[in-house]
Amino acid sequence: MALHHSVFRDETKLDINYVPNRLPHREGQLRLLKEFFSFALQSPEKMAQRVMIAGDVGTGKTALSQRFGTDITHEALTRGVRLRYVHVNCREYRGSLFLILQHVISVFHPNFPKRGYSAEELLDMLIQVLDEENTHTILSLDEFDSLVEKEGSEAVYKLTRLQEMRQNKAQRLSFINILRSPEMLGHLDASTRSTLQSNVINLQKYSRCELSDILSDRIPVAFNPFAVPSETVELVSELAFSESGNARFGIELLWRAGKYADAENLQALTPECVRKAASSIIPAVRKDELPTLVLHEKLFLLAIARLFVQSQKAVISLAEAERAYSVVCEEFSVSPNSHTQLWKYLKDFSKLGITETEVAGTGSRGRSTGISLPRISAEELERELRTLLDQESKKT
Ligand code: ADP
Ligand code: MG
Fold first, then answer.
1. Domain limits for position 199
2. Which residue has the higher pLDDT, 245 or 65?
3. DSSP label of 322
4. CA geometry: angle at 212 spanning 52 and 379, to 5°?
């Protein structure tokens, strides 16, 4: 076996369950969350809190809550305060209140019997357990949507108002409810809804620049030095941004692109690695569109694909693409179409999601048009187009 050097330094740092030390562009929200729970480090028995974190997939909800949980647990430990943070993914327990409660109790009593109790009894027992432990617990209910969906108002109400039922006793239970769409709380009755909607932290989708910062922060811990060129980071950010500002997608893409680089024994993640990784994740719908292109669209696209195969660049200029297109036309013995026509083709490619076009620079030479091929492997595209063009030339 040949000596193989991986681009990865530690790929577990790209794992979905890894919680990074820092959360770029969520610092403010982390501070706010700590602010909401500052009482828990001072007088945890006097108060209970409910916070809701809402946002789309990949906006950092889970990471934010976990980071907060680890930080506050550490802080409590150094101050000698009895405080626990328990994170439960409700979906893993099929949104069942019974299974969720059973799990939470088993965190404190690993040998807790699995049978013989109702959800109601488990609720009482949970408080009992926390009383015995003399501990305030922050229970983070992740994917809370599934609990609401499965159990509806009553269960949610009972769970979140548990504290209020016991006046003048030590406060034991605070909640962080994490959910994707606050609209789904519309299924609940008004009073349950109002108990949930007090402190809301809304996470917006990440911008392209924010995604680039997040990825750049992760790269040094996950990859070897120089394994991820900045061009590649930009391409991954662009893709994650167009897939709805989803950081999870960006990190997975980076990991897969690394796998392609390793498989081909490359020193670094080239843009082509990213395109291959992206086309393995994104459904290959775009390939189905290729046969519908007219002859010169195919020729022009073939020229673009070849340029990407040869150049290892993430972006090529329209001028380069036009020159490559003339060469392809010569090869197929047809006369090339005009600049205006190519410009129209390029617009169609964008609409189909094949290429992307950006107009940049206003220097002395005027604006230049950049073309990128973010989602499809250039090698694959070249192969597909060759096959289609060969078939067409056989027909004539
Ligand atoms: P959600 O729970 O909203 O779907 P996650 O918290 O699971 O999103 O985040 C998805 C991925 O992106 C995780 O790997 C997480 O570590 C990472 N991530 C999200 N936001 C950030 C951030 N601000 N900084 C660093 N990593 C982040
Ligand atoms: Mg999550």
1. 27-203
2. 65
3. H
4. 120
